[in-house]
Every structure is written in structure tokens, then in C-alpha cells.
Amino acid sequence: MGLELYLDLLSQPCRAVYIFAKKNGIPFELCSVDLRKDQHLSDVFAQVNPRQKVPALKGGDFILTESVAILLYLARKTTQACAHVDEYLAWQHTTLQRNCLRLLWHKVMLPVYLGEPVSPEMLTAMLAELDMTLQVFEDKFLQNKAFLAGPHISLADLLAITELMHPVGAGCQVFEGRPKLAAWHQRVEAAVGEVLFQEAHEVILKAKDSQPADPTIKRKLMSRVLSMIQ
């Protein structure tokens, strides 16, 4: 039996899982989940057989480590992660992932989806923090390589690009003024394939057009969201 992947493509690590599985020809059935409606907490997940199904993220954007474990699980079907990938994974979840996630929520999801105002000063500070993180990304990890782990695309590149598409979906020009980063982005998209890349990011690129949340959903989400983006 093939895998059943429970994914919400609004979630950056879910997009990485989706791209990796499709690009490597791993058979799976996509089971769409709306994390904003807490569908990942439904009874379906309590009945999952881990030998047959891989529910990606019981918390979506709220828990990254489970999705990384899923990617590594899938990767064992193709190749072992190298030291460069491991080093990047150890760094990104408290830096790039955090910056990109907070920026998406403060720039789009809080004001548009949840109807909560965000000060311009807060957004300016977050953009400055992301800019510093991108400099570290370029200097320490990308350097002068084609991809993060060397001449070929890896899990590290997939996770990084899906993280960066969060602020892109929020309307931020993260590649502008960074030719090295922009060239890497083009190489990753070419390696993935333009059609698959756009397919995986269709939802996040429409985030700005989100409809306001139902008041009941807003009440359920607010405390968790505020805790996540501090």
C-alpha cells in the first residue's frame, strides 16, 4: 500500500514533503487537511497506522520536527542525508523557519485572516531580522555552491525554499537585492520543475486573499497562534 500523506500546502514543511515525494516518484495519496480549522486534531489521525500512513504534521506550522522526520523517512527510500544537510536542519528551525513563519502571520494571517492589527514597527523589525538571517544563510550555508549541500539539490534546499515562500506569499520581495539568493532560487525551481514548484506553492501565494476566519475558529486559534509567533 502506498503512503497517505495528510498535508496542508499552506504549511511550509508540508510543501517540502509534497515536493520531495512527487519529485522522487514515491507513490502516495494526498489527503488534504485544513490546519486552520483544526482538522489535524480530528479522529482520523487517532486511527492512523504508522506502517501505512504518514500524517505530515499533527500541528502543521506549529511543529516542524515531525515534518523533518517525515522527510528523512522518505529520504531513506532514496539516499542518506549528508553532513551539510544535517547541519542546515539543525540551524534552520530556530532561525529561518521562525523568521519566515512570524513574518507571514504578522503581515497577512493576523490582520487579514484573524482581523488583528499589527504595528508597522513590528513588521519593520521582523523584516530586519529576516534580512540578517538571510545574510547568514548566504554566508554560512550557500556560500559559492550551486545548492546548500553541494552541486545537487537536497532536502536542505527544499526546506529552505518552502520557508522563503512564506514571506513571498505575504508580499515580501525577499530575493530582491540578493543576486546570489535569487540565482539559487531559480536553480531550485528548475531542479524541482516549474510546474511542480508552482503547484506546491499555489496555496501560499494566495494567502493574501484569505477570507476572515469564522469567530469560533478565531477563538480556538488565537492563543496557540500568539504562543507560536512570539
UniProtKB/TrEMBL annotation:
What EC number(s) would the UniProt record show?
2.5.1.18
**A Pfam entry, by short name:** GST_N
Q: Where in the cell is it found?
A: Cytoplasm
In terms of PROSITE patterns, this protein maps to: GST_CTER (PS50405), GST_NTER (PS50404)
Q: Keyword tRNA-binding, does the record have it?
A: no
A single BP term in Gene Ontology = glutathione metabolic process
The reaction(s) annotated as catalysed by this protein in its Swiss-Prot or TrEMBL entry are:
RX + glutathione = an S-substituted glutathione + a halide anion + H(+)
Q: Which residues form the GST N-terminal domain?
A: 1-82
- Single Gene Ontology MF annotation: glutathione transferase activity
Q: Quote a single Gene Ontology cellular component term.
A: cytosol
Task: Tell me where in this chain the GST C-terminal domain is found.
Answer: 78-216
Give a yes or no for keyword Glycoprotein in this entry. Answer: no
Q: Which Gene3D superfamilies match?
A: 1.20.1050.10, Glutaredoxin
Which UniProt keywords are given for this protein, alphabetically ordered?
Answer: Cytoplasm, Transferase
Q: How does it assemble?
A: Homodimer.
Family classification: Belongs to the GST superfamily. Theta family.
Give the protein's recorded name.
Answer: glutathione transferase
List the taxonomic lineage. Answer: Eukaryota, Metazoa, Chordata, Craniata, Vertebrata
